[in-house]
Every structure is written in structure tokens, then in C-alpha cells.
Amino acid sequence: MNSGSGQINILLVDDNPANLLSLEAILQAPDRNLVRALSGREALKFLVNKDAAVILLDVRMPDMDGFETAALIRRRERTRNVPIIFLTAYDSVGDTYATRGYVLGAVDYVVKPIDPEALKSKVAVFVELYRKAEQIKQLYAHLQRHAAAMEQEIADRKRAEKERVEMLAHAQAARDQLRESEQRLERALRGSNLGTWDWNIKTGEVVFNSRWAEMRGFSLDEVRPHVDSWSSNVHPDDWEDTLQSLNHHIQGITSEYEGEYRARTKSGSWIWVMARGKVFTRDANHQAIRMVGTDLDITDRKRFEINQAFLSELGALLGSSLEYERTLETIAQMAVRDLADLCLIDIVEGAGNVARLKVKSRNSSLIPLCNLFMRIPLDKDQPMWLRMVAQSKRPILGPITEEMLASVFQDESDLQVIREAGLHSGMVIPLLRDGNIIAAIVLFSCSSSRIYGAADLYLAEELARRAAASIENARLYFLARRAIKSREEVLAIVSHDLKNPVTVIGLVAKMLRQSGELEMAQVAEYSKKIERAVDKMLQLISEISDSSKIENGTFSVAPQAETLKNIILPAIDGMKPLAEAKQQTIECHIESNVPEVAADGPRVAQVLSNLVSNAIKFSRKGCKIVVSAREQDNSIVVCVSDDGPGIARENLSKVFDRYWQSEETKQGGIGLGLAIAKGIVEAHGGKIWVNSELGKGSSFFFTLPLATPDTKRSKVA
């Protein structure tokens, strides 16, 4: 059971000595005896005649894996209830291993690398439970000895009936000894946090100790010393099993009584109790007369178990689908089943607006309330829940007050619906992505017996973490499907754009074949048509190739020390014919004494040409396009500004996405230019962004690093 030094055994099972050494480093404590086992057989051999408070069992071991070892442990009566925590280096098969572990009676399933603090906390819980259980066993043994002593005392009194004086003297001594023993027992029980009860089964009278009353929120004086004080406060859902276990022991079917049930407290809330007891006195007909036992408050342990089961089921359900609507339905359904009477899910959209996507209730009586919450408009600037969690970005909870309701519902008929529902308590759970609130789950309780408290925060935060990840996965799945659709559209555009120059080349080749001798001017004209068609094809192929390299992470640049004017001015000169065709002007403003940059000249010119080309394409006739450059924060900032139509606010985050094109400004092309420009700038270690408003033009900025003495110098002056 325990080591000779009084330490508590913790069995560590892993075929890797390094892993065992790591576990020992995490779990070492003066009151613990960490027992190593390099295989399942070693572990079983140890457990033949020794106990362990908890077993940490590696899943993947040669010869006999963790699941086989656990199954053998569970078959033996002596080790059937020893807590097992499974350890594994990975979880590639999803929830299958975890489910198999829990079927075998595992209390937890931990994936390596192990979080030391989390593992310490989990093991500490089971060590403490083991210690409490040992204390209870010792107390039972003490009670048995005490009862036997009392029975012997009664026998001695009967035998000494003839010697009255001596009997009275012995009786007084026994009473003094009993009182002192009971005082010692009460102090011991109080130290172990156990409530005790001594039940006269024939009369129904029960002697409770003060701890029994305290764990239920009463003083001992407030508790009637009768069995009804216990039976009337057992949860209805637990009463049948509890009564069956008790009757089985009273009838002699089981050696002792043991059960777990919920007990109502003075405040109306519920606690979990682990009760153990034993009949100490039976009559000549073997009918139970007296029974003694203990109660232990196990609310924290049960809450942990219930929370883990809830989160495990939630994770499995959320992982079963990537559909957005089904994900929201799963979150709401699980919330109203186990946590709330009413659940709201609000989403923060791209432009900062808040939309209510889901309202669900536990039962049909709250349907009017659901309809109300879906119908009322949300405050566009700051809905109440957003104001409540905006600073801390942590779940908050509290009672629902009349003032709070009046600030949201101005219509008296709406307030009447709220009052009839009887909202008592609420909890707002923000969902975060990259530190920003993307949604919130709002939970309401309509029962006075469930008031959200600090104990609910852990489950709320875990729910938020899983829900945020699932909603994000559903969003990414939607984006992936949209990207596939965009790719198909792009393939159609590419096919069309390649078909045109190929057709030109084919027609020119046919004309050359059918014509006789041609004059030089005609040959030159046909050659130019072929060259233009080839250039267009090569440009399209180059864009697709660059985009593919950027996406695959194989794109690179060759920076050299360059004078910025030597890059910018030729690029602008190449764009001027296009601008002049639309009666536009291009101005260039580069600050004097701008240092050299570390840049791949042709690639930076490609970025600049793309930005200027877009400015020309999307600006009206007669507009002015300005290219400028300045030094800022140890880098060079290049800007291309135009007086064009501008970009809608909700589209600003999309302009650098591959294949994306605004519906309002689609003018051919495949939507890769800005994505490639972004890749080129980032390959230089810079960044690119855009400022724009509808009707006020756009300004595209990108940065380039300054050249250093170590930067390679260009061979061309």
C-alpha cells in the first residue's frame, strides 16, 4: 500500500527511462514514493501486493501496451478503482485513443509534451483523495474497535450485576473514557473534513456531528436529529440509487454501504457527497439496529469530472463537422443542455458590426424569449455584452438586475416577456482570435438554484476556447471553399487570356503561309503582333510562376545596394505611355539625399510598375498619380497615390489576397498582381499596405531596407 516511510506510492509506467526520469522530476515530493515500471508486466507485479494512489501509464509500450495493462489492472478487485492517467506522445487518431482510455476507466488522457503544472495539479488531486480514503479506512477501523469495546463493556456490566458498587465504578470510568474517546474522534474527524452520523435504524434518530451540518450550510442546532434531515435533502435523481445501496447493506447483501449523491444545502444549491457506513449492531433475527458512517464533500472532484466529460463530448461534436451553421448549433445545444436555460451567440463581423446568429433555449416555454432576443436590434457601436468584456476579454458573470433589463428593453411588453421567463443569472463568454473578440456566447439561467459563480469560470473559458477554434475552423473551411471557387474562375480567365494571344499567333502564321513574298514593312508588322502576343503569354506565365513560388515559400530575391532613383525613374518612364493615353500625369517626388536601399532592382521595379499600372487603370481621365519616397525608421517608404474611385473599407483587408478582385472594378487580369507585390516586398523584409476611402483615391505604401556596408554592390553604376 504505502512505502515503509509512510510515503504514498505513485506508479510510473513507461518503457523509456528518460520519460520516467522526467516524470519523477515533475512529481517528486517528500510525501510521495515514485515507483518505476519499465513495462506493463512490471507494473502488474508491483500491484500484486502493493497499492498506488494513481498510475501514470504510457499508451505505446512494446509487448504489452498501456490499454492492455489497464484492462488487466481493472480486472482485479484490488486494483479496480485505482485512478489511471494515460500518457501518449501524440494523438494522431483523434479522439479514438482517448475514448478507449475512458472506456477502460481512465480519469484523464494527457498528450505529450506534458504541461508540468497541469500534471502536478491532476496528480495532487488523486494523492489527496487517496490520503483521505486512507484516513477514512483508519477511522472505520477505529469505530469498529470502539463499537466492539462498547459491546464488551455491556457484557462486563451484566456479569458484574451482583457487585453493584463495583459495576457503578466501572460504568463511570467507562463513561469518562468514552467521552474522551469521542472528543478525540471528533477532533480527528474535523481535521479530515468528514461529517459523521450515528443512526438508530429502529427509531430513526440520528446523531450528526457539526461538520455534517456545516457542509450543508447549517449549524448543528438547526439540524433535526432524525433520518428525515438526510433523506429529504437527497437530490431526486440520485435517491433511487442511494436508497438501493443503503438497503443492500442493511439487508446484508454488501459488506458496507458506499454511495455518491447530491445533497441540498441551506441556500438551495447542491453539493456532491461521498457517504460510507456500516451496520454495527443487529438483533437476534439479524435485523439492523444501529449504523454509523461518514460523509465527505466531493463537490470539487465531481465538478472536475463533469466538466471534463462535457468538454470531451463538446470537442468530439465540434470536430465532427466544419459546416458553419452546424458548429453554431452544436455550441448552443451543448450550452442549454448542461450550462444554461438560454444561449445567445453573437458574431463580430469584418466591419466591426455585431450580428446575432443563434438563440436557443432548453425548453419550449422560453420560445417567446428566444423570439424577443432575435427580434431586438443590437447597438451597432457597443452592444451591452461587448462593453462588459471589452477591457478584460475574460468571461464575466453576475445576477440579472431590473436596471440592466430596462437599459436593453424599452418596450413594456418586452419587459413582461423577460420577467415571465425569470432570468436570474447571466454569463458573457468572449471568443478570441489573435487577441481580438470575434464573437460572444451569452448564457442565462432562469433558476434560482443555479446562480453562476466563480466555479463556472473555468468551464466557461474552456468552452470559449473550443468554440472560438471551431468557429475559426468553420470560417477557414468556408474561405477554402471560396478559394477553390476563385481558382476555378481564375483557370477560366487564364484559359481565356492564353487563348487570345495563341489565336493571334495562329492567325498571323496562317497569313504568312498563305501570302506570297512580303514586303519588309508587312514582315515587321506581323512580327510585332507575334511578339506582343508572346509577351502577354510570358507575363501571364510569369505571374502564375511567381505566385506559386510565393505560396510555396520558395520565392527569393537578390538584394544589392541600389540608388532608389535608378529603380523608380525607369519604371515610371515605362508607364508614361499608358498614362498619356488617358491624359493622366505621373509625378515623382523623392527626398534629396535618400540613402541607398538593399533591393533587387528588377523585382522592386515590378512592384512599382504594378502599383502605377493599377493607378492608371482605375483612375479617370486627367487624374494625377504621385510616386514619392522618404526615409523613415531606418527604412525607405515608397508611396503610389492616385485620385481614383478608392476602395471600400470592408475590402481593404482583401486587396493583397491571391485572385481577389473587387466586383466594382473587375477589368480583366487574374488578380495576382498585388499578391505578387506583397510577396516581393516581404521577401525584402519590408511590408506593404494601403490607405483608401471611397471617392477619395488610394495610397499604396511599401518599405525597403537601407543598404549596409555588407550589402552587395551593383556592378552597374
Can you characterise this structure?
The protein has 717 residues and is α+β, with helices and mostly antiparallel strands. The strands form five sheets. Strands 2-1-3-4-5 form a five-stranded parallel β-sheet, sandwiched between helices. β9 (270-282) and β10 form a beta hairpin. α10 (299-318) runs antiparallel to α11 and α17 packs across α20 (673-683). The longest helix is centred in the last third of the chain and has 60 residues, at 455-514. The relative contact order is 0.04. The mean pLDDT is 81.
List keywords for this structure.
alpha+beta, five-stranded antiparallel beta sheet, 20 helices, five-stranded parallel beta sheet, 47% helix, 22 strands, 717 residues
What's this entry about, in short?
It is built from 20 helices and 22 strands.
Structural class: alpha+beta
Helix count equals 20
Q: How many β strands by DSSP?
A: 22
Q: Order of strands across the biggest sheet?
A: 2-1-3-4-5
Radius of gyration: 39 Å
Which term fits the overall shape?
elongated
Spatial gap, N to C terminus:
85 Å
Q: Describe the biggest sheet?
A: 5 strands, parallel
The whole-number mean of residue pLDDT values reads 81
Quote the beta fraction.
15-25%
Poorly predicted parts = none
* Amount of helix: 40-55%
Would you spell out the secondary-structure blueprint of this structure?
Layout: E1 8-13, H1 17-27, E2 32-37, H2 40-46, E3 54-58, H3 66-75, E4 84-88, H4 96-103, E5 108-111, H5 116-159, H6 164-191, E6 194-200, E7 206-208, H7 210-214, H8 228-231, H9 236-250, E8 257-264, E9 270-282, E10 288-297, H10 299-318, H11 324-338, E11 342-348, E12 354-361, H12 367-375, H13 384-389, E13 396-399, H14 402-408, H15 412-421, E14 425-433, E15 436-445, H16 455-514, H17 520-552, E16 560-562, H18 564-581, E17 585-590, E18 597-599, H19 601-618, E19 624-632, E20 635-641, H20 673-683, E21 688-692, E22 698-705
Parallel strand pairs: 1-2, 1-3, 3-4, 4-5, 17-19
Antiparallel strand pairs: 6-7, 6-10, 8-9, 9-10, 11-12, 11-15, 13-14, 14-15, 16-18, 19-20, 20-22, 21-22
